[in-house]
Design brief:
This protein is an alpha/beta fold and about 375 residues long. Helices cover about 30% and strands about 25% of the residues. It folds into two domains: about 120 residues, NAD(P)-binding Rossmann-like Domain (Rossmann fold, 3-Layer(aba) Sandwich); about 210 residues, Dihydrodipicolinate Reductase, domain 2 (2-Layer Sandwich), CATH 3.30.360.
Length: about 375
């Protein structure tokens, strides 16, 4: 089979995870890397074993060998970069969020249609075998009617006032932080599993650290633990560390979730509980190989990821036998496998999250942010 040649822009935390996942597919070659400047690009390209390095987007886009580009830069430049990638006629795989506002994301969805390029967004939690199993249990009627959905997304990497990242600056990250950064994953996962749309929201925000200590030099995501007290200066914070959200689904079912980036001990816990008329399902990203299935009339079950026990669809997301756990890097691999299989013409329809899903998430986040200010229920304007 033909090898597809790809390039990547932005290689901080998530960029290298894309490089590794793409390489594991076996038919994708990462031929070019673009970073914020030439020196950084050269250093990163050497470290990741990528032959060509570019210090500007324009230079990368001129490279005729590159057919697909991964946009793994900070949020505020996603829109301009994805626009340029599509204008250059290259396929685009964007990190979330798709853009900073729905005005921008609407334009990207439109441009993707006009240019006809393949467009994808990394809502990677969809691609775990047991998330696919949960979706299948809903779609096949095994869960019954959806009564309600609840859950949370909790982390502790911004727990201390000395923890710093560009996500704390609205100019780079957007007007919402915890909801937009991780709540967006929760909403995408629950909509994907239930097949329902969130139509109304009521949000309440809390900023725990009203001032944080900003390092005087730049730090990559998750690497702030290495700094000394003299390396910091205080700055005011205007985005939420914690949020609680009530919501309604398109079918009238209700739900709620909370997000926190200041929850000691929780590292990256996307957690949902889905109550149906025949059973309930519970899943935790920190224990991704277990799906708890609750019953009223018989003992509950714990389904351990094992391809032989999964539905035919979910089985295609599990690459190792039972007892061989699969987790975060494998979700990303499953996502890219579907995107690149479609680009290669092996799949007839896109079976992955697209720019439209990225737009939908921004619409939900904007409604939650609006509600946190109006203190009223707000409708999601898709
Ligand atoms: N789907 C997920 O699970 C997931 C996880 C983490 C991050 N993300 C998303 O990925 C994006 C990046 O996050 P991160 O944590 O890797 O950030 P990061 O700060 O660790 O890395 C960003 C990289 O982009 C580079 N960059 C900045 N400006 C650039 C420019 N003009 N041209 C080229 N490169 C540039 C930086 O030098 C850095 O290497 C964010 O939008 C974030 O929301 C998604």
């Amino acid at each position: 089979m033909k090898t597809i040649k790809a390039g990547i822009i932005g290689t901080g935390f998530i960029g290298p995870a894309h490089v590794e996942a793409a390489r594991r597919l076996g038919f994708v070659e990462m031929v070019a890397l673009c970073e914020a400047n030439d020196d950084l690009a050269r250093t990163k390209a050497t470290a990741l074993g990528i032959p060509k390095s570019y210090g500007s987007i324009a230079a990368l886009l001129k490279d005729k060998e590159v057919e697909v580009i991964h946009n793994c830069t900070p949020n505020h430049i996603h829109f301009e970069i994805s626009k340029k990638i599509m204008a250059a006629g290259k396929h685009v795989i964007s990190e979330k969020p798709l853009a900073m506002t729905t005005k921008e994301s609407r334009e990207l969805v439109k441009l993707a249609k006009q240019t006809g390029v393949v467009n994808a967004i990394d809502f990677n939690y969809r691609y775990y075998p047991l998330v696919q199993e949960a979706r299948d249990q809903v779609a096949s009627g095994k869960l019954g009617d959806v009564f309600h959905a609840t859950g949370s997304y909790t982390q502790d990497w911004l727990y201390l006032a000395t923890d710093w990242n560009w996500r704390l600056v609205p100019q780079f990250s957007g007007k919402s932080r915890a909801v937009a950064d991780v709540g967006s994953h929760w909403c995408d996962a629950i909509q994907f599993i239930t097949g329902l749309k969130i139509t109304k929201v009521l949000g309440d925000f809390q900023t725990i650290h009203k001032h944080r200590m900003k390092p005087k030099k730049e730090v990559e995501t998750y690497s702030g633990k290495l700094l000394k007290p003299s390396d910091y200066e205080p700055v005011p914070i205007h985005t939420e560390d914690f949020a609680s959200v009530l919501f309604q689904f398109s079918n009238g079912a209700h739900g709620s979730f909370s997000v926190s980036q200041c929850f000691a001990g929780r590292k990256n816990r996307l957690f949902y509980e889905l109550a149906g008329s025949k059973k309930s399902l519970v899943w935790d990203q920190e224990r991704p190989n277990e799906l708890w299935i609750g019953y009223r009339e018989k003992p509950n079950e714990l389904l351990i990821k094992d391809p032989s026990l999964l539905s035919p669809v979910a089985r295609t997301y599990a690459h190792y036998p039972g007892g061989h756990p699969e987790a975060y890097p494998d979700g990303l691999k499953n996502f890219l496998l579907r995107v690149y299989s479609y680009i290669a013409g092996k799949e007839k329809r896109p079976d992955f999250s697209t720019f439209q899903d990225g737009h939908d998430e921004l619409a939900i986040c904007e409604a939650i942010l609006a509600s946190s200010k109006s203190k009223r229920w707000e409708s999601v304007k898709y």
